[in-house]
């Protein structure tokens, strides 16, 4: 890697793998550092003698000679969400027991994240996890979400800190969720997806002086090389993009000293017929030069969250290897900067499908890079395309920071992707693709402008992208500007990875 501005180089990442095992044993028999029990408000109710009514908690209390009920009561633990207490009690096989409040019902990924938190705080290396009571949902899905939560909850990005701690957790036994090969397969899938999410988070968190377009291309090639039995990589340089007439993409890159690189990874199963061809297209980085409250200019490193999701999904797909589906991972990586060679308001640029664009807003650059990426994706002969981008503040205003907006003219594709998001736990909301709003995108001197003003801004952005997609291809745009970043944790979320992987699985022959 070349020297970066400021001579900053990230420390090598080392994510120790956690060994997950499904155990069908009595919780009082489990031996290890920390036994964690998820407890709802109903589970924590006591009888007239202050004993737990829940049979599992009552049994644990009996083995601790009544200390569990006594001490948890003194800690005011009543199963409310966000509550947790870790106790060191005699009479149990575990060195410590932790109670985690679930509120009215269990949210399993959140429980897993809480398990990771208490494991880190207690420096536990072996953890057992059980529920005081099981509800009606699938134990397979519940265990999978729990495992995801543990892996993601342990993640801390210390690559740019002079000192960082490594978690000691190495094994997690999931108790009472059943056993067998199907459950083990689910747990492995959850791990694979979670490490893809973590890769996406790390890409999103990387500052622009470190993660240049060239370095992003290097990271993509590393993914392909790690799974060379099913992946190929094709990285196009500036001259190759010019030969493909990618004028829209190259106009955005024109002002930067860092050259653009167009990333194209292809996943093909090592055996069997391909029944469906998909493309995942991610927006690269942006540059918000607008000043004032909420402009977030220092956080524009997250403006490549779409490409981070695509490459995170590629990493997970390389592990899972779904049969019967070919997937193209496409990222048009470049920097939108300011210089004498950069595009100006009023410039007219030409995309690779021949359509002309009057640039009325140089900050709305992401859609310009996506335009040529979508044309390129259609030329790969794919059946369906999903693009992801932190495209508009308008979508954040409409939906907030916990969900992304989806835009598609195809009801079948909308149903597929929404179903995938429900399985993954990521929130999507279908938004209107109102064709009459295209009037706002008309130009007097070109085929279109690149922005249509504040009103309906996320809709007009999606309509702009639609101009670069073949009518023969099913297409969806996901505007993920809201959920890309967790302000409380000061970190990227890896949003989109889990849904993309689940959607690819849906289209596979698995």
UniProtKB/TrEMBL annotation:
<comment type="similarity">
    <text>Belongs to the peptidase M17 family.</text>
</comment>
<dbReference type="InterPro" id="IPR008283">
    <property type="entry name" value="Peptidase_M17_N"/>
</dbReference>
<keyword id="KW-0031">Aminopeptidase</keyword>
<dbReference type="GO" id="GO:0006508">
    <property type="term" value="P:proteolysis"/>
</dbReference>
<dbReference type="InterPro" id="IPR023042">
    <property type="entry name" value="Peptidase_M17_leu_NH2_pept"/>
</dbReference>
<feature type="domain" description="Cytosol aminopeptidase">
    <location>
        <begin position="361"/>
        <end position="368"/>
    </location>
</feature>
<dbReference type="GO" id="GO:0008233">
    <property type="term" value="F:peptidase activity"/>
</dbReference>
<keyword id="KW-0378">Hydrolase</keyword>
<dbReference type="GO" id="GO:0005737">
    <property type="term" value="C:cytoplasm"/>
</dbReference>
<keyword id="KW-0645">Protease</keyword>
<dbReference type="InterPro" id="IPR043472">
    <property type="entry name" value="Macro_dom-like"/>
</dbReference>
<dbReference type="InterPro" id="IPR011356">
    <property type="entry name" value="Leucine_aapep/pepB"/>
</dbReference>
<keyword id="KW-0479">Metal-binding</keyword>
<dbReference type="GO" id="GO:0030145">
    <property type="term" value="F:manganese ion binding"/>
</dbReference>
<dbReference type="GO" id="GO:0070006">
    <property type="term" value="F:metalloaminopeptidase activity"/>
</dbReference>
<dbReference type="Pfam" id="PF00883">
    <property type="entry name" value="Peptidase_M17"/>
</dbReference>
<dbReference type="Pfam" id="PF02789">
    <property type="entry name" value="Peptidase_M17_N"/>
</dbReference>
<dbReference type="InterPro" id="IPR000819">
    <property type="entry name" value="Peptidase_M17_C"/>
</dbReference>
<protein>
    <recommendedName>
        <fullName>Cytosol aminopeptidase domain-containing protein</fullName>
    </recommendedName>
</protein>
<comment type="subunit">
    <text>Homohexamer (dimer of homotrimers).</text>
</comment>
